[in-house]
Write a structure and sequence with these properties.
By secondary structure, the chain is α/β, with parallel strands linked by helices. The protein has 9 helices and 5 strands; from the N terminus they run E-H-E-H-H-H-E-H-E-H-H-H-E-H. Helix 4 packs parallel to helix 5. It has a 5-stranded parallel β-sheet with strand order 2-3-1-4-5, sandwiched between helices. It has one domain: 3-Layer(aba) Sandwich (Rossmann fold). The two termini are 12 Å apart. 52% of the residues lie in helices and 16% in strands. The radius of gyration is 16 Å and the shape is globular.
Amino acid sequence: MLVLGLIGEKGSGKQTFVNFLKEIAPDLNIRQVRFSDILAQTLMIWDIPNTRANLQKLSLIMEEGFGQSSLANAAKFSIEGDSADVTLFDGIRREAEMELVKKMPNSILIYISANQKLRYDRLKKRSEKVGEVGLTFEQFLKEEASKAEINIPQLGKKADIKLENNNSMEEFRSSILKVWSTLEKA
């Protein structure tokens, strides 16, 4: 099994990376584990709106109450016994989550970055989470500075592979294809 850990700010292209990888390697069983999905499930159970602010707040509450590795442990538990060819840990935001991936055999950390204004524009277009529809650039910048988001660039510096996603979708797809070709040969 190959384990990929995706680090990247919101709107940088992590989901696009996953989608392209599935397209590039259709014969492989690729399992995506999003740290935010674990948080979203918890919010749903508690009947709390799935907003970025609530996801961030919950992650901080879990970290403060149960330790930095609580979310990483939940993610690890979710893949135990899994038979995927490739497991993607998507949305690494903490050192413990990065360490989880690094401790796994055959693991690679990938940092996906993009220009801040471009990422904001992407969020506005996709409107994936409640609150993204009317999000102002000032609100976006405030979220970027939150405790749940601020460590991402520092973690990205420790990644094995760094991808910039500032150009066209085809150029990003091409860079993912190059990374995949390298990983397949290894």
